[in-house]
Amino acid sequence: MKNIILPILLSSFLFSNLAVAQHYCGTYDGYLQDEMKKYPEFYNSLEDKNNKLKKDCEHLTNNLNEKENAGERKIIPVVVHIIHDFGNENVTDADVNYAIDQLNKNINRQADNMLTTPEVFAAVAGSANVEFRLAKLAPKDCDNCPEEPTNGIVRIHSELTDVPSPRDIVKSLSYWNSYQYFNIWVVRSLPSSDGNTLLGYAQFPWSGAMSTDGVVLLASEFKDGHTLTHEVGHWLGLRHTWGDALCGDDGVADTPPAKEENWGVQLSDFPHNLNVCVADSINPAGEMFVNYMDYSPDQVTSMFTDGQMEIVNQTLEGDDLNYPYRRYLWSQENLEKTGTTDGYEGESCNKKPDFIENYGNNTNCLGELNVLKGNKNIFTNISSLTWDWGDGNTTTTTNSPQHTYDAAGTYDVSLTLVYIDDVTSKSLSIDDVKPGYTSLETITETKILEGTLEELNAVNATNITLHLDDSNYSVTLDTLFYRGEYEETYYLAHYESTCNTTVTKENFITILPVSATNTNDSYKYSFETSGLEDDFHVLDNELVSDWNFNISANPNWDTTSKASSDGNYSIMMDGKKLTSANSIIFETQAYNLSDLSEPAISFDFIGAAVNSFPRNELIVSYSKECGVWKELATISAEEVASAGYYSQDFIPEVNMIWNDTVMYDRIGSNDLKSENVRFRFEYTSLSLTNRLYIDNIRIGEEADLLIKPTSENRFGLSVYPNPSTHYDKSFVMFETSKEGNIDVKMYNVLGSEVKNILNKSLQKGFHSFDLSLEDIEEGVYFISILEDGKVMETTKIVVQ
User: Does some domain include residue 295?
Assistant: First the structure.
């Protein structure tokens, strides 16, 4: 019998918690709703995609002609999206395969450490009887489109591998529909909370948001499979064993109550936390800290329970109360579409070479060294590797080649690899093995089975032993179970192919002469007769959008006539398209500024916010060495959003005041006084933002650039003190150039008016008004001057 009495009666206790930085899981009931409240625009943009995915899923599921799975193993197609910046987070195919193997062992009660489970808990240990397999066919763009082979691993180069915000934003880089594939995203780091490290998170099956469905993990945690197992448990409907509350309830009858998460507990601590949530006379076995849904160390966790596996199967199959959104995943129809049936061979040569300039210096001076970095680590059995520098020279073997060009110019660079690809196909029956294999392995594994004597005899188990709770860790003797061994044989066919693959990046390296040929005293760019690319070098952000449900495209600056500070045109970046992009960069030409006394650069800008937590900035840098960039200044998210909050696309009013800035060498060494100076504008957005406009870029003498044109509409709006507190006597100050009706209003970051500071007709001159903040909560706010109902100028205030 595999019955055990693990009560769920709770006692009332008071506990103290120590605030110690720990590793944690980001999955809990309501986490997605919390993220939606924090980043409403991002998640609102996914609503149409969620509705379409749900509709497609229900159509396919409702039209399945298959019978119920009569105890047979459920196969779940998997795609692993590796979001990387050419670091260690770009895990190898072998790492992926190992992680999936460990997941399959753990969820089917075959973990390497399964025999360490205390026997009172082993009596209720369960197996999911599922198998996760990497897909060999990618989703098709249309019903009549040809099949697209894959190895189930997608690699995306993006800076969003580090601390993406919102954290689901990495999913927009690469996503395969979640009714056909189980999506796993691997990243370098995730947002922390109160100093705690987030290792991963999953989406519960009842969330309803199919466009973000799946699991996200740190690369460092993905490899061994334990954290993956924990998050897959959530994805299949399981909660933490402590129910995310003090002595909470995880909804599973055979997991005993737990006070809270267990960090650092060891097997030698069994029985653990006696007489805490329940009296030890009722549950002398203590907490089930060996459960995968706890936070115990990897070497300690070794089991799910029968009750947890009932929830898993309910999630996969559905019931009268829960629609089976996971049902189509493991259907025979879908296994054929995803290439995950027994014996499916698949196609070889799916890996693609890729590379970057190791230091980000795609532009260098003549005579300087260029260093590249490739992705050789993801290939195996390489017979040759060749770099073509585009100038008649090649380099072989190394993954980090170096080269010096002999002439100025722009060069294409390519990387070619020849390797042997070993595509494997697993079959449980020899009849499913397809011919043409290079080699065939017959693998017989000894599996351990726990259950009743009848269950073990049904599979002809051997070495059967009776296990009994003779240490009185349970309140009855109903914890007896049998453990035995049985053999499982499968066939692994290897189909080897020699692959020759090349990637070429056009105009990848630019070599400039040591001394610039632009020798004027000043330069001005207002985009009246030419676009950005006519005068500047726009870098490719290398964003990959590999499927039509991705929310991002390759964004960049556009010339627009909708707003300008000088003339009729400016350049505009639509921040709503930048939610999952790498930095957007454009660089100026090279200028010889050596004859100027104090060279500087100036430009006008204006932008707006679209949510409460903008994480975007504009970094302006310079280089006098054709590629070594030094920062001049950073325009912060608050400054970029100086116009305040706009729920719609931001278009500045005609009389709205633009920000102007003059940037120079702030260290004082007059570093811009050089024969070869270039400037770089790098715009980065790690969350949704609104539009940003730039105009009137000028380069010349600092004194000339500091002369600002007069404007009858400029108010010089300021707040003192800033930051302010509830108790400070604060003032709003500004100057009017003419008589008129003036409104001064205070808004929160969501664009809601929180205070009407002023509404009256004012004479020309300087004005100062008291600002009471007693009723204002702490946070960031915007104060705007409106003239005849139009916003004319905005400034930020921080209330502490």
Answer: no
Task: Give dist(CA 265, CA 270) in Å, integer.
Answer: 9
CB 349, CB 497: distance < 8 Å? yes
Determine, yes or no, domain membership for 110. yes
Q: Which residue, of 461, 476, 511, is where some domain finishes?
A: 511
Domain harbouring 31, CATH code: 3.40.390.10
Q: 């627009």: which residue's tokens?
A: 560
Q: For the chain, what is the domain count?
A: 4
Terminal C-alpha separation, the chain: 63
Q: Is residue 420 part of a domain?
A: yes
Assess whether 481 and 539 both reside in one domain. no
- Residue type (1 letter), 682: E
Q: Which two tokens stand for residue 379?
A: 């290939």
Spell out the residues 6+ positions from residue 721 whose beta carbon is closer than 8 angstroms to its own: 728, 730
Active-site choice (231, 587, 617, 787): 231
In this structure, the dihedral spanned by the alpha carbons of residues 727, 732, 733 and 737, taken in order and rounded to 10 degrees, is: -170
CATH number reported for the structural domain that contains residue 416 in this entry: 2.60.40.10
If one compares 144 and 289, the residue with the highest pLDDT of the two is 289
If we measure between CA atoms, which residue out of 682, 681, 672, 683 comes closest to residue 625? 672
**Residues 499 and 636 reside in one and the same domain:** no
Residue 105, classed as helix, strand or coil, is helix
CA geometry: angle at 646 spanning 642 and 650, to 5°?
80
Which pTM was predicted? Answer: 0.80
Q: What is the pLDDT of residues 54-102, one digit of tens each?
A: 999 999 999 988 765 556 899 999 999 999 999 999 999 999 999 999 9
Query: pLDDT per residue over 301-317, tens digit each?
Result: 999 999 999 999 999 99
Strand partners, 482: 451, 466
Whether residues 651 and 743 fall in one domain: no
Residue 617 has a CB neighbour count (10 Å cut-off) of 19
Active-site annotation holds for 231? yes
**Domain boundaries, position 634:** 513-705
Whether 452 and 536 share a structural domain: no
Tokens coding 667: 């260290």
Rounded distance between C-alpha atoms, residue 616 and residue 609, angstroms:
10
- Distance, in Å, from the CA atom of 344 to the CA atom of 338, rounded to the nearest integer, reads 10
The reply to whether 622 and 755 lie within a common domain is: no
ω before 435 within 30° of 0 (cis)? no
Could you give the CA distance from residue 628 to residue 359 in angstroms, rounded to a whole number?
Answer: 9
Is residue 756 classed exposed, middle or buried when 0-12, 13-18 and 19+ CB atoms within 10 A define those classes?
exposed
CB atoms < 10 A from the CB of 373, how many?
16
Q: What span, in angstroms and rounded, lies between the C-alpha atoms of 234 and 312?
A: 9
Extended strands (E) in 308-401: 355-357, 363-365, 369-374, 382-388, 394-396
**Interhelix angle 226-235/93-107, nearest 10 degrees:** 60
662 forms beta bridges with 602
CATH number, domain containing residue 770: 2.60.40.1930
CA atoms of 204 and 322, how far apart (whole Å): 13
Task: Report residue 44 CA to chain centroid gap.
Answer: 18
pLDDT in tens, 618-666: 999 998 877 778 899 888 887 888 777 777 889 998 777 788 888 887 6
Residues 670 and 773 in one domain: no
